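Shape matters. As here.
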Amino acid sequence: MRVAGAAKLVVAVAVFLLTFYVISQVFEIKMDASLGNLFARSAFDTAARSTKPPRYKCGISKACPEKHFAFKMASGAANVVGPKICLEDNVLMSGVKNNVGRGINVALANGKTGEVLDTKYFDMWGGDVAPFIEFLKAIQDGTIVLMGTYDDGATKLNDEARRLIAELGSTSITNLGFRDNWVFCGGKGIKTKSPFEQHIKNNKDTNKYEGWPEVVEMEGCIPQKQD
């Protein structure tokens, strides 16, 4: 009886040890697999982050060189979505900021620092052009001027207003018509015509929206004013 009992004990111990060994091997395999998956995910995430394209100021397509200000702007969309003006990653005017309106939207910035000086909009459909003219005359030399239309920016424009905008570097202002879309970046005291201007005519045959052309967008790098 004692021999039989001892034999049973030996068998039980052997079964226990075998079971423990099998469980430990399975657990080790699962741990290795889990760690392998963890390291694989980590490597994938690192690779994904390293291949993610960089973001530049205002969301423009490439970085500006030193001593230049990044800007991006868009005209309004019909009479529904207002224009947007961004300078140095700072949104100066937009519908979200609730500081845009029908007509010509204008943002002024310091040509040396890029600091915003003023933002205003002038209703060129139902408003008066006189305040706009006074505003244009008061702009100081060295000021960056960004403009974008919303709905209609031309009906109330007269020759004097168009001349003052042309002096800021615009070439399209003389042809800006009813419900045209237009964006422009120039400066007071500029010696040449600005390269930063987009204009699309209101044409019922090509309009994207009923009564309005498609949105015009523009981005670029404005040279910093030097002393």
User: Anything to note?
Assistant: The first strand starts at residue 68 and ends at 74.
